[in-house]
Every structure is written in C-alpha cells, then in structure tokens.
Design a protein that fits this description.
Helix content is 43%, strand content 16%. By secondary structure, it is of the alpha/beta class. The protein has two domains: 171 residues, Glycogen Phosphorylase B (Rossmann fold, 3-Layer(aba) Sandwich); 153 residues, Rossmann fold (3-Layer(aba) Sandwich). The strands form two sheets. The protein has a six-stranded parallel β-sheet with strand order 2-1-3-4-5-6, with helices on both faces. A six-stranded parallel β-sheet has the order 9-8-7-10-11-12, with helices on both faces. The longest helix has 19 residues. It is globular and about 60 Å long.
Length: 344
C-alpha cells in the first residue's frame, strides 16, 4: 500500500507516534511518506511574520499559518497518490485540508492521541470530516468517540525497540529518581513532596511556571536522549496525567483505564519504574512487575524502600521489560492497524 502519514505539528510526544508508525509500516513493506506538518508550520510562521512587518495591509493571524501549512498536505496527497491517509492527532490541521482530501475520495484514518483529555475536540473532528476509521489511545474513549458515526478501534501505546533499549550511559545521565514530562498541576503537587528526600531527585520537562525553587530544568527532549536518562536512573517515575489542558479541570475519577507511552518506554529500556495506581491496564500489561503508589506519602515510602534494594529493582525491571516485547510500533501496526487499512 501507499500510505501518507500527516505528522501532528508538535515535535515531541505525538511526533513520536507518527515517526513510530511511519517506520513500522515501512518495515512491513508499505510505501510510506511522512508529511512534515511541523516544518511547514515553522516555515509559514516565520514567513508570514516577516510579511506582516513589511506590509501595512496585512495582519498576521495564527489561522493563516495553519491554513497554508495544511494546504500543502493536500498537495502532497496529489503528488504521492496514496491508497490511504493517516492523520496523527489532527487537532492542529485546518478543516480546509480535511474537506479537500475528502473531495479526492481518499480514505482518511485518524490516529487520535489525546484521549480522554480532549475527546470533545476529537469528536468534533470526527463529526466534521469524512473519516473512514479512527484509532484511539484510550480504551474507555472508544464508545464516546463512536457516537460520531465513525468506526473506532483501541490502539494501545507502543515503543521503538531501536530507541528504547538497555544501553550504557555516563555519569551525566545518572540519578536516583527521575521524572520527565509535562509538568501538569497535579504532577507539580506530587513532585514537590519529594523535596526532603535524601536522594538525587531529577525533574525535567515542559512548563516550569509552577515548579520553582530551581528543582526543575530544561524542556522536553527527544526519545533518543530520554532513553539515556531512563537507563541512568535507579527509579523512574510514571505519573499519569489527569489534567485537561483547555478546560482547566481534571478527568473524572475512573475516566481513563489505559496506560501512557511512558510505561512502555521505561520498561523497554530495562529501567525500574514506580507508577500511580489509577490505570487498571497497568496490571493487565505488567502484572506485579511495576510497583504502584496511591499518593505522595506512599510514593516516598516506595522510593525509600526500593533505593535500599537494588537487586529487587533490577529483577522487577527485567520482568517488566519481558512483558513489553510484543508492544512495539511494528507489532501494533501488524496486528491492529494494517488489517484495518487493507479493508478500507
């Protein structure tokens, strides 16, 4: 098959999903073109910003950047002539691109990455475009998303074994306790409770406005770099998000069952992780190989316990790594994505 994959716009997280499936589908023998939407956003952002400074008759609007960047996806489809178009995330793509692709009678597949946090937006996308099939990263979101009259399939998160694997790292990557990710408010509240522990606690990630006192550093990093950090940490923290970005509140208790990509990536690196106990799928995938915590107090107890037991940490990490061997992008593509694409 000839498959066009539209990258999401951001250059982390959802970008990794697009890159993972582009590589996996290529490995399965398909001809795949990844449309670099993120690069066109930068190009038109800088170009139109310059035009705005030299042309008094023009006033730059964000919608202009999105529109022009999205239109190039349609040009790519005309030139590439795909059998199917996969749109990853899709929230940053202009509606005009959806409309034009539909006029070309191309099967459009959505790979939704923001469930359950942005299901309302994702439902609007499915309702407003001619989508042949949608995949979602949260199994509890299959039913509400299906109300848009689009077939929806649960697609668990994955990892790239060429990136997430056991490797040797130098001292710059070593820490006792590591958390990397977006610093949502609930994560900030939790991580601040670790200040008094007598260990090297390293926190890195995006949006440091609430995480002050010099405790956090940097921005999001790509997966190649992050895999080194995981390999260098004695304990990796995996605290699932509950915060809704735009609504300013949290998902309802029990509103998510599926684990995020961090759980798979840490395990694939052969690293030890502690995870919150809010996602039932954690036990289904890992059994008892990933210890959990309820709150800040139980997390501190877990950290203190496992810092004194390196052999137990290593044993659990090795067991968790074995549990995710069949959870690669290529495995998911072969078992879940490819059979559906062939039916469209």
């Amino acid at each position: 098959m000839r498959i066009l994959i539209a990258y999401p716009g951001p250059t982390h997280s959802t970008y990794d999903v697009a890159a993972g499936y582009e590589k996996a589908l290529c490995n399965l023998g398909h001809i795949v073109y990844g449309y670099p939407y993120h690069k066109w956003l930068v190009f038109y952002g800088e170009t139109l910003a310059h035009w705005d400074t030299i042309n008094d008759q023009y006033q730059l609007e964000r919608n202009d950047v999105v529109l022009h960047s999205s239109q190039h996806l349609v040009i790519a489809a005309i030139e590439f002539v795909p059998d199917v178009v996969i749109i990853v995330s899709g929230g940053a793509l202009h509606k005009h691109a959806y409309d034009l692709l539909a006029r070309m009678n191309l099967p459009l597949v959505m790979l939704l990455t923001e469930s359950p946090y942005e299901d309302d937006l994702q439902i609007r996308i499915l309702e407003g475009a001619r989508i042949a099939h949608a995949f979602t990263n949260e199994r509890l979101s299959v039913e509400p998303l299906s109300k848009a009259s689009v077939p929806v399939t649960y697609l668990p998160h994955s990892y790239d074994p060429d990136v997430h694997k056991r490797i040797r790292v130098n001292g710059n990557y070593r820490s006792d306790v590591l958390f990397h990710g977006t610093l949502w408010p609930e994560r900030v509240r939790l991580l601040k409770q670790l200040y008094g522990l007598p260990f090297d606690v390293r926190v890195t990630g995006l949006d440091l406005t609430e995480y002050t006192e010099g405790r956090a550093e940097g921005q999001l990093v790509d997966n190649d770099e992050l895999a080194r950090w995981y390999n260098g940490a004695k304990i990796c923290l995996n605290h699932h998000r509950t915060f809704k970005t735009k609504l300013g509140d949290n998902i309802a208790p029990g509103g998510a069952a599926s684990i995020g990509p961090r759980a798979y990536e840490i395990a694939a690196c052969g690293a030890f992780q502690l995870c919150d106990d809010k996602r039932p799928e954690l036990r289904e995938v890992f059994g008892d190989s990933v210890p959990t915590y309820r709150d800040a107090d139980s997390l501190k107890e877990r950290i203190e316990y496992f810092m004194e037991r390196p052999k137990e940490r290593k044993g659990l990490a090795k067991l968790a790594q074995a549990h995710v061997q069949g959870c690669t992008f290529e495995s998911r593509a072969r078992e879940i994505v490819e059979p559906i694409l062939r039916r469209l």
